[in-house]
Amino acid sequence: MSDCFINGIASISAQPTTDPNTFLDEIIHYQESIFKAHDPNYKEYIKPAAMRRMSKSVKMGVTASSIALNNSGVEIPDAIITGTGMGCKQDSEKFLENILHNDEQFLTPTLFIQSTHNTVGGQIALGLGCKAYNVTYVQGSASFESSVMDAKLMLSEEPEKNILVGGIDEVAKNSTMLHKLDGQIKADPIDVINLLKSNTPGTVTSEGSTFMVLGANKVERSIAKIVDIETISRGGIEDVSIAITSLIARHNMKIDDLDAVVLGNNGDINFDLYYKNLQNSVFSETEQLCYKHLTGDYPVASGFGFWLGCKIFETNNAPDILKVNDITAKKYENILLYNQYLGKNHSIVLLQRC
Amino acid sequence: MAELREELKEKLIEQLSLEDVEASEIGDDDPLFGDGLGLDSIDALELIVLLEKDYGIKLKDPKEGKAIFESISVMADYISKHRTK
Question: Which among A49, A102, A110 is the nearest to B46, CB-wise?
Fold first, then answer.
């Protein structure tokens, strides 16, 4: 397998994360269990005529991909690979509501076109005029990582390619509320900044998009190398610990060689055990960073972890708001990302500074 | 007829998500497609559905739309002559 470098990255989240000159300097405090992304000025990136039909996820995806491409210096990628847990929920809901309200008559094309899971990948391709490979992965909370794995496979066969990889998920009126009814989202409003200490079932949810440009060759703009990535569909707490140790060992490294771990703790007392076990054992001597008390959780939230890793490499700094233990690394060369949701779709990623 | 023209402008803005357009900015005789309002083929399909849903007019041949959707005035004239609701 050839190398895989992140040559450009951008993220839109519930926090202001699109200004390249800041790194979580200003934090927005949310007081509810469902909150929206902090919108950049989409008009700077999308023509008004194109934007009028775009739902939130399409706007976020097109904008994040545009910034990532610009950062990488790549104008037209050789492939577009997207991941999403739930797809374009807003337009799916509108389409279904129209079906109900109009007794299955008078269905308009726009909402149908815009309600598929691969709408974002398609809109990015249309905007760029890119007719290359275009695939969308829908794999729960490992959707983003599934896209990255496909890109790595493609780069191993065609190392000359520049691949645009990203993830998108949005909040929608009805389907997001269903997750509140089934207990995935906390029943009561919460001061989100204290999410990780909540000790109650469920999490908080939001929306966002992260896009990266990946290539097999290290270039001047390369930020990080994706040394390895692994997903586990279902596994127990010990399985995860073993998988992480094995992944590190595969690269002739020890846990001590990790400068920081970025964990996907989401404040759900029933499932944060996966993280806490690692925090109290293999990572007890490693700097531990969390982010979902800033961004909320959603299927491709783990993409934000990639963005965090890259920003830490770029700035050689991890903001205090991310830190959940008292250890501070002396340098940031190797960062491990670990995420899971409801004990499923675990992902382990090893990033190395360029 | 003037009332219908204003109604159509409002419906166009809402149905076609013309977020940055005000009804007062759409001239009665401005072309809706091409250099005018810049509508496209997907909008044409939306307008065909709008005719049927709101005015009970079912176009037998979608190609008819090209002439009917020339401008707000032409649309209003066609609707006033053929509407069933």
Answer: A110
**Amino acid occupying residue B64:** E
pLDDT tens digits, one per residue of A223-272: 999 999 999 999 999 999 999 999 999 999 999 999 999 999 999 999 99
Contacts of A220 (CB under 8 A, 6+ apart): none
Q: Alpha carbon of A64 to those of A18, A137, A206, A243, A297: distances in Å?
A: 8, 18, 16, 31, 18
pLDDT 10s digits, A128-184: 999 999 999 999 999 999 999 999 999 999 999 999 999 999 999 999 999 999 999
CA-nearest residue to A106 within chain B is: B49
- Which pTM value belongs to this model? 0.93
Spatial strand order of the sheet with A224-234 comes to A133-137, A79-83, A162-169, A208-215, A5-12, A224-234, A344-353, A334-341, A260-263, A287-290
Chain A hits for B53, Cβ within 8 Å: 102, 105-106
CB atoms closer than 10 angstroms to residue A80: 27
Structure tokens at B46: 């939306």
- Interface size A-B, in CB pairs within 8 Å, comes to 28
